[in-house]
Design brief:
alpha+beta
Length: about 450
């Protein structure tokens, strides 16, 4: 169970799930990754669209089981009829008739060639597949939010490094100009400093654009612009090694689960279509009442109870063709399942290797930054005594900035890769992450509607 820290903000109480998301206690103004993921889970329209799609597919079960139930129809009519007679040699006669009638009929299916059972089972499998695909969508939205969150952090950190580099080169340019004016440096040294400063300005401007793009992308997933973000770490949900990740991915990846249920529903569809070749039996009960007004009232009542057996003898080959088609579709679904299992192995392996690689890269870049900082200090000292040129200093500064930017990028990629591993094993969900939100229950709508006999309301 994740530890919960409650903090007070201007907008009220905010729950920070520090242990679940690998975060230390944070300042009040900080916006955690858990909060960003919670906002995306609650308000992302793409995720809400997938939930509505699931609720739509939930209706296939009540539609299927309705074939067990009777159909009741009532009819009535009222009108006027005028009859004129013209006898030979006699007087014409007009008769006015006011017919009215009503009837009630109840038809109960008794046997439909096992189609109702097959259709119901197919609907249940389609619902299970849709639930798995909702998990797929949830994981995608949350991973996109993780990437958007970390992109904001990366671009802001990169912008800060670019600004510091630009400011340092500005001071370097001023110092170079001063030394040029007293004859210590040449015009070439000044031009080199000017060139690097102009390049740093362009890189800073590009970094500002990257920040604006990243913030807009963040708002797309969470519904609001980012505040002050903090660097997260990878949750403990990452499997300890690649074999464990592969084993969990094969068992729990929602893409595989969805396609497994697709294959089952394809087999159910064979039985559903084949049922059209079997006899059907139904019972019908009816009551009719007719009444005419011709001078005096006259009426007639009819009661009926019928059993109807229909045996298809030949359907022009159309049903046989659809049975064969359903069998081929089931074969296709089975092949899709085999491909999905291979694909999830590839995804889990790639994610794990990316995670391991970027963790190693972080160590390397940290060492590079430390070494390059020492190198820059040495080059600056050597330049002061004349054994190094201004260009050497500028090159050393650039290498240090690039190393710091690569470190920032590797930190971002490492966290994203860790969350991608979690996604591949099917655990990048609000429930597994312990997000501070009410969890969406996929079964509520289904349980409310599956046995509903009448009504059009969806709430």
């Amino acid at each position: 169970m994740p530890k919960v820290k409650v903090i007070q903000t201007r907008s009220g109480l905010v729950l920070v799930f520090a242990a679940a998301m690998g975060l230390a206690p944070l300042p009040v103004a900080a916006q955690t990754l858990a909060e960003a993921l919670a906002a995306a889970y609650v308000g992302n329209p793409d995720l809400e669209s997938e939930r509505a799609k699931l609720r739509s597919i939930d209706e296939e079960v009540p539609q299927a089981v309705s074939n067990w139930r009777p159909q009741v129809t009532m009819s009535s009519s009222y009108g006027m009829r005028r009859i004129e007679t013209f006898p030979d040699g006699g007087n014409n006669t007009d008769i006015y008739n006011l017919p009215r009638s009503w009837g009630l009929e109840v038809e109960q299916p008794l046997f439909r060639g096992f189609r109702t059972t097959a259709e119901t089972q197919r609907a249940k499998n389609r619902i299970a597949a849709a639930r798995a695909r909702l998990v797929v969508k949830e994981q995608k939205v949350l991973l996109d939010t993780v990437e958007a969150y970390l992109d904001v952090l990366r671009t802001e950190q990169t912008l800060q490094l670019r600004r510091e580099n630009e400011e340092g080169l500005r001071r370097q340019l001023e110092a170079t100009g001063d030394r040029f004016r007293v004859g210590e440096l040449t015009r070439t040294d000044v031009s080199q400093a000017e060139s690097r400063y102009a390049q740093a300005t362009a890189e800073r401007q590009a970094a500002e654009g990257d920040v604006r793009i990243a913030r807009a992308n963040y708002a797309k997933f969470t519904g609001s612009p980012p505040g002050t973000l903090v660097q997260p770490s990878v949750p403990s949900l990452v499997p300890p090694d690649l074999p464990t990740a592969l084993r969990e991915a094969r068992a729990n990846n929602p893409n595989v689960v969805a396609i497994e249920y697709d294959e089952r529903s394809a087999r159910d569809n064979i039985e559903l279509v084949f049922g059209e070749l079997l006899p059907t039996l139904s019972a019908t009960a009816g009551f009719d009442y007719d009444r005419d007004i011709i001078g005096a009232d006259t009426g007639r009542r009819r009661r009926s109870l019928l059993a109807e057996l229909t045996v298809p003898l030949y359907e022009a080959g159309e049903v046989y063709s659809r049975v064969r088609q359903a069998k081929q579709e089931a074969s296709q679904a089975l092949a899709n399942l085999a491909e999905a299992k291979r694909e999830v192995d590839r995804i889990a392996t790639n994610a794990w290797e990316s995670y391991a690689t970027n963790r190693a890269r972080i160590v390397s870049f940290e060492a590079q930054v430390q070494a390059q900082s020492v190198a820059l200090e040495g080059v600056e000292q050597e330049q002061r005594v004349g054994s190094r040129s201004i260009l050497d200093v500028l090159d050393a500064e650039r290498e240090l900035v690039n190393a710091r930017i690569e470190l920032v990028r590797a930190q971002r990629n490492s966290v994203v890769a860790g969350f991608t591993v979690i996604q591949s094993v099917g655990r990048l969900t609000a429930r597994d992450l312990g997000l501070p939100v009410p969890l969406y229950d996929m079964t509520v709508y289904y349980e409310r509607m599956k046995d509903k006999w009448i009504g059009t309301g969806v709430e």
